[in-house]
Amino acid sequence: MGDDSEWMKLPVDQKCEHKLWKARLSGYEEALKIFQKIKDEKSPEWSKFLGLIKKFVTDSNAVVQLKGLEAALVYVENAHVAGKTTGEVVSGVVSKVFNQPKAKAKELGIEICLMYIEIEKGEAVQEELLKGLDNKNPKIVVACIETLRKALSEFGSKIILLKPIIKVLPKLFESREKAVRDEAKLIAVEIYRWIRDALRPPLQNINSVQLKELEEEWVKLPTGAPKPSRFLRSQQELEAKLEQQQSAGGDAEGGGDDGDEVPQIDAYELLEAVEILSKLPKDFYDKIEAKKWQERKEALEAVEVLVKNPKLEAGDYADLVKALKKVVGKDTNVMLVALAAKCLTGLAVGLRKKFGQYAGHVVPTILEKFKEKKPQVVQALQEAIDAIFLTTTLQNISEDVLAVMDNKNPTIKQQTSLFIARSFRHCTASTLPKSLLKPFCAALLKHINDSAPEVRDAAFEALGTALKVVGEKAVNPFLADVDKLKLDKIKECSEKVELVHGKKAGLAADKKEFKPAPGRTAASGAAGDKDTKDISAPKPGPSKKAPATKAGGPPKKGKPAASGGAGGTGTKNKKGLETKEIVEPELSIEVCEEKASAVLPATCIQLLDSSNWKERLACMEEFQKAVELMDRTEMPCQALVRMLAKKPGWKETNFQVMQMKLHIVALIAQKGNFSKTSAQIVLDGLVDKIGDVKCGNNAKEAMTAIAEACMLPWTAEQVMSMAFSQKNPKNQSETLNWLSNAIKEFGFSGLNVKAFISNVKTALAATNPAVRTSAITLLGVMYLYVGPSLRMFFEDEKPALLSQIDAEFEKMQGQSPPAPTRGISKHSISGTDEGEDGDEPDEGGNDVVDLLPRTEISDKITSELVSKIGDKNWKIRKEGLDEVAGIINEAKFIQPNIGELPTALKGRLNDSNKILVQQTLNILQQLAVAMGPNIKQHVKNLGIPIITVLGDSKNNVRAAALATVNAWAEQTGMKEWLEGEDLSEELKKENPFLRQELLGWLAEKLPSLRSTPTDLILCVPHLYSCLEDRNGDVRKKAQDALPFFMMHLGYEKMAKATGKLKPTSKDQVLAMLEKAKANMPAKPAASAKAASKPMGGSAPAKSQPASAPVEDSVSSTVEPKPDPKKAKALGVSSKAKSAQGKKVPSKTSLKEDEDKSGPIFIVVPNGKEQRMKDEKGLKVLKWNFTTPRDEYIEQLKTQMSSCVAKWLQDEMFHSDFQHHNKALAVMVDHLESEKEGVIGCLDLILKWLTLRFFDTNTSVLMKALEYLKLLFTLLSEEEYHLTENEASSFIPYLILKVGEPKDVIRKDVRAILNRMCLVYPASKMFPFIMEGTKSKNSKQRAECLEELGCLVESYGMNVCQPTPGKALKEIAIHIGDRDNAVRNAALNTIVTVYNVHGDQVFKLIGTLSEKDMSMLEERIKRSAKRPSAAPIKQVEERPQRTQSINSNANMLRKGPAEDMSSKLKIMYRTYRIQARSMSGHPEAAQMVRREFQLDLDEIENDNGTVRCEMPELVQHKLDDIFEPVLIPEPKIRAVSPHFDDMHSNTASTINFIISQVASGDINTSIQALTQIDEVLRQEDKAEAMSGHIDQFLIATFMQLRLIYNTHMADEKLEKDEIIKLYSCIIGNMISLFQIESLAREASTGVLKDLMHGLITLMLDSRIEDLEEGQQVIRSVNLLVVKVLEKSDQTNILSALLVLLQDSLLATASSPKFSELVMKCLWRMVRLLPDTINSINLDRILLDIHIFMKVFPKEKLKQCKSEFPIRTLKTLLHTLCKLKGPKILDHLTMIDNKNESELEAHLCRMMKHSMDQTGSKSDKETEKGASRIDEKSSKAKVNDFLAEIFKKIGSKENTKEGLAELYEYKKKYSDADIEPFLKNSSQFFQSYVERGLRVIEMEREGKGRIPSSTGISPQTEVTCMSAPTSTVSSIGNTNGEEVGPSVYLERLKILRQRCGLDNTKQDDRPPLTSLLSKPAVPTVASSTDMLHSKLSQLRESREQHQHLDLDSHQTHSSGTTTTSSSSTANIDDLKKRLERIKSSRK
Prior knowledge:
Blueprint: H1 2-8, H2 12-16, H3 21-37, H4 44-48, H5 53-57, H6 62-78, H7 86-97, H8 103-132, H9 138-155, H10 162-173, H11 178-195, H12 208-220, H13 236-248, H14 252-261, H15 267-270, H16 284-287, H17 293-307, H18 318-330, H19 334-351, H20 356-369, H21 375-391, H22 394-405, H23 410-426, H24 434-448, H25 453-470, H26 472-475, H27 484-496, H28 502-510, H29 525-534, H30 547-550, H31 560-566, H32 575-582, H33 589-599, H34 602-607, H35 613-629, H36 637-645, H37 655-671, H38 676-689, H39 696-710, H40 712-725, H41 729-746, H42 753-764, H43 769-786, H44 799-812, H45 834-851, H46 863-869, H47 874-891, H48 901-908, H49 914-931, H50 939-949, H51 955-972, H52 975-978, H53 982-988, H54 992-1005, H55 1020-1027, H56 1032-1049, H57 1051-1056, H58 1063-1079, H59 1086-1092, H60 1099-1103, H61 1108-1118, H62 1124-1129, H63 1134-1143, H64 1152-1155, H65 1167-1176, H66 1190-1201, H67 1206-1212, H68 1217-1229, H69 1235-1240, H70 1242-1253, H71 1258-1277, H72 1284-1288, H73 1291-1296, H74 1303-1316, H75 1322-1332, H76 1338-1355, H77 1364-1373, H78 1380-1397, H79 1400-1405, H80 1410-1425, ...
Helix pairs in contact: 3-6, 6-8, 7-8, 8-9, 9-11, 10-11, 11-12, 17-19, 18-19, 18-20, 19-21, 20-21, 20-22, 21-23, 22-23, 22-24, 23-25, 24-25, 25-27, 25-28, 29-45, 29-59, 31-32, 33-36, 35-37, 36-37, 36-38, 37-39, 38-39, 38-40, 39-40, 39-41, 40-41, 40-42, 41-43, 42-43, 43-44, 46-47, 47-49, 48-50, ...
């Protein structure tokens, strides 16, 4: 027992593994209990047992194993992680449980397997069970089969895959073990229950007895569809639903379900494919041609046996099909024909879709063979053609079938119609679109009038089937002219028809009316292609005369009402009537008279033919009145027009009568139900009068009215034929003119272009010029709709005429067809024909393509030619190919039948001679263009082989193949390519070239498709294997294509497809899928598709690669009716688009010049932001490519359409480079005038320019670079900053061009890069240029390295990104480059860094090879010999960024006249970035100091001349580095060196001086400040600072930061210097903030930084210790008040709120800091009543919202001090008080108001204030500065006093306040003002008392104490003092109490100094002395002061010119040239100044 006790102590998991069975048993029992207790499926407990579960089921002890199985079952059922154990546990169950004798064990084992299936692990379980079937132990096999059977019975055939089971069934039936055979029988019965007869074929070969037994069992099965009884976890809610339904008694859902389920399994899928080609008899091809029919029969019988295999393996069956076709077509023995037909049937059935490629060849042959009468032959042929139909689509064979329809043989006609009927049964509404239905109906309608009854019946059946499939609404338009009897017959047939897709078709028929017409989802590629034009259709609104298209073309007559009416949803009362009237019989004249007399006055009829014209006129007037009053239904149109045509009819001589007559015709046509019969009566007369001067217009109106009633296509045709059958040229030209206008009004749909063209040709040949002109105008209008293909018809006209036609077309180019305004027929019902609209353009598009006279070339493809192409000698093959090319060229447009050519060409695609392969590809390209969309039928047999060529090893062959595939795809659309397995088979081939090209092609095509065939999923497994391909390019392409596959297939399907991968691969692929999911673009809307395939349908458009009109049609299609969804998909706001739509001039006569007035860039508000959002959200493609693909260009075009003038866009995207040049010229002209527009579209302009970088034409490139130079100059003037998006989509492409071979281009690119630094930080440019150094192009590498050197030289080391070390290492790599220029450039760059950075360079670049190192050291030595010690010299180099190291570089630098201001701007920017990132690092300061020190020298060298000449001076200085010193002779001598001349250069000068303010050298900074102060003090000059305020403030707080961080810490520096600098800065700022207009320019961000700097300074204890420190702090105090009062109130409030937020968040910031910020805020609150109206409340509330979001109330309450929460409440309270309830309207800028308590707080306050209307708590109002005991009942008194104290506290009203207080005290002597005073500072109390005394003295006339106008400066900030007097006075921190008089005295002095008192401006003390000690006498005037400063500069300049350059260092940071006691120097300086003046004269 001892051991027992041992294991009992062990934990459960160890017990389970114990070697003692008892221990294990106990362990399993405990585990079972644990498992039953755990409620959470994700509990960590489960994971402990993960590794043990297999042991549970495979335990060697049977008793223990049973317990283990129980525990395992519970585990699998409940544990989240159980799925991981599937494989091992199930295999354990199979091998160790199923062989157990105990039934219980087996049951548990089966249960475990089923439970795994339930937790979604079905595939793994099935795999293990199938492996178990191979086990030698029959027990195991039986158990496995049983488990599978149970699984199938419970879960259904959706979960359990039947194919692998059925595969092994025959083997199981052959087992020796009876038990296995019996179990096999049971599972076969179960499978049959699910898939019914699909199981028969796979089991046909088992033992007949067994089969018989099975049959008996099968018969017993219930017929109902089976339903699963158990569900996966993910489906369990479905189960619950099902139960509910069953309890409710209905199982509709179930019915629906199994509707989907049963047909899911197809027997075909379950079969193994058999390979038969190799089994054909060796001599088959000889025998089939044998003379004896017996031999031929033998050959066929051999094939017949082989094709009986139900599933055949794919292969090349072309030759076999060809042989069989020949037998069917040519063999005289009908028995063999039938046999061959059977073989074809077998092939089609066995190959299914794979046979599709041969269908086109065989169908015509079979159809024509139907002339045979023998029933068995006919039956065999029927079976064959039906089987073949199932392998292809009706669309693909429609051409062939229609061709046979016109055959004379009635049997052929009958059988073809019957075949069509059978085919229709397989169609659905979507696979039988209108574009297909139309030609079939037209052909069948001819047949229903055939003389042979069998032909008629067959046609009726076909039409009836069509009616059943797509419903009446779709078919009726085509049946417009069918009489009632026949119509009834068709309907009768339709009722009898049984459709293949039973249920669904039935539904379709019932709901037909409400179904949108199917054309949308057209299976037909043709329809797809023409979708381009779809978009223009919907514009006219919902009700459009849909029928126009249907009845289009000559064969159909009839009226729109029919089709409108057929839908039967809306106003259908007239339907019956119209149907009859449509085919209105011609009435005799008597009947007409009778009808007319019933509705017209009797006199009218009598006077019709009166000889007196006046009577006739009166008669007409009556006639007109009668017609006007008649009701539509009662108007006998035909009778009335007959009356009008009655003698004198149209020969009427009096023009007035005639005009009335024509007007009446128009009225009748408009008001009545006007039929074509009526129209024919009048049209002749109208055409006759159309040329009449007086009546012509009326005739045209009447024609237009008739066209509306009878539709334009029919009317136009009639009118044209009438006009050209007579000789009158006036009538002809006017008819053509009428037609031109009518087309514009009615649109183009349905017009029979062919008929027009013949008439137009006649007109063009007319002698009368007017007729020719009208014809050309008509062509122009047609061109708008038809596009360039129209020109094809007229190529054989005389050159003179052709040039006129071309000119007319040119005029039309760029215009879009106007939207139709008429023909939106009154009969059509709104809403019902939306769908039809969608298709309407299909017809038009189709027409245009169909019109082209296509030549039949099959006869030229002779067998000799075909054998030539296949000859052994390559030269002969080449000859053959040349001949083919010649044939196609000559024919231009060909019919789809090209005989044996496809097979011949296919052979040449794998020719060993690559030249021939290329030639073949060119021919195939030609072929695509020539055949147009009909090339579709050759995709499978010719298109796919082209794709195979993409795997060629030669680059040029691949390129040619890609071009060919694209040419084909353009014609066919993508559907044909993606259908079937062909594409996936190609992708399966492990050829890296093929894979990458094919994936690249798919990635390009897929994004633009709206839908793809389901077969796309077949490519996915191969796509996954490409993701792991050995070849990197393949992997990359596969990754690129991934999102586009996902876009069509969805993430779920893609993820599911990973199931078959190895686990490691699966994880990787799933990760990639996740990534792709994030990048997945949205599916394009219709318009995107349109954009991707301009006029896909019209072949000719392709022949001119990208001619503008084609594009035009795209842009125009997108315009007419911007559907908001589509617009979004294109990334263009629909508003913008509609504006664009309006802009396009619709009149063709507009001249181009008028068209081009107006802005070229349209400013779209927020357009750019929206585009960036779209790009971020991946709604559009990211601008990132190696070469621009079509979809990028299309996308850009679409985006531009809303913001670029239409005509300019056409130029920009024209295929001809000259148009690009034009566009650039226009853009240059408009650059200055349209700055806003340019900046608004900048991203698009830059993207377009990147496309130009890929052009090969140098002139465009030069022009583009020219434009860019101007553009960036403009942007820097506008101080624009490039966005990240703009930079990243432009700079990389610009850098590519820096490697151009042409010097001049490289130079331009470098110049542009230079200028870019002014609008984009150099530190961000750096990485882009760095990327450029990795190029393969050595020139580019060298230039990029040069550029990097220049950047470092100009901007210091901090531009090096990511760190100087990394950057330099990268640069140093290039020292070892194989190209000399690159090596030099790399060395020069590092030398440049060495010059800037010293020896540290060697540390940074790391280890170099010895050779490289020695080269570098050598170069550094050489550069050191050049005297570069003097910083002045560097100055000259730097700003120009010249390097004298490399003369080449010198050339490339911009001329020395470059504007300096821009340089400094960048320095700032870089500095600001550094200051942020490195504040507190002394080295940063060091760097800055160095950088700005140079600028300082620059200014000094420059100050002697007038500003506008500055660049000249620099020029001189450059020279004097190299030559003996020369003194430049400036042309103008400035009297004073201030900004006297406000020349064009002022701005740059100011920039320059401002940059000095931030200099690291104190004197430089002081001088700059002095100059600025000088400007600020002169009112007339101060304006010059406008626009530079932010810049100046930035420089200032940079300087403050520099002092704080660097100078104060510098021991060597005299502190006096620092004080002097401080005083200058503060004085300057005070001057600035007195000028309100300038002060308001300061922006929020800058004010925030400024306040931060000033408050930090006030708290700087180091300054307080200096003797002058107190004074500085007081001045700052004063300045802060100025800033608060004068700057833009919104900006400063906003800045303070942000500052407060930051300071509370920052742990390092002192509480004092936050407190001062709050005091500033209180100050602002007190100003609010006066400023509230100028404040942008929305912005302030947004800031408060953000504050409250960061600091919710709870968090604020945790602050140590209660100030923050009170400050916030006070601010809000004041705002509420001032604005009232309106304040809630100002929350507009807040996106999500629930993120903070702001709204709730405001609402509470509003409510509170409503409740306490009178008595607001004063604690709130007074914010503690004036608290009154709240219990006091004298609320009003308190309010009054509070107001008074508020006035005293505010600077402006302080006197008034004191006066009121004085009055009040006099009136109520007992009033207690103590509470108001006691919380304020001592100083404020004494100030109030003193004020009252003063007033008392004044009133009593006791003289006057001089008092200052305001409160002393530091109380300005503190007198809002807090209730607890934490900071009683900022100035006074040393602790001693000082009486108010001292302060007042100081204040007086201060105010005088600052010019705040009444002192005159000129007498203001200069800045330096502003804060100096009283001991130092002040300088007489600021002018003198400035003179003194400048004289120093001048002098230093003289010294430079007369001393040796090297020996004199200007300002080193330690010493200064000016001595600190200014007075001592001043006289001396004055003298010097005089001396200089005299010496210069």
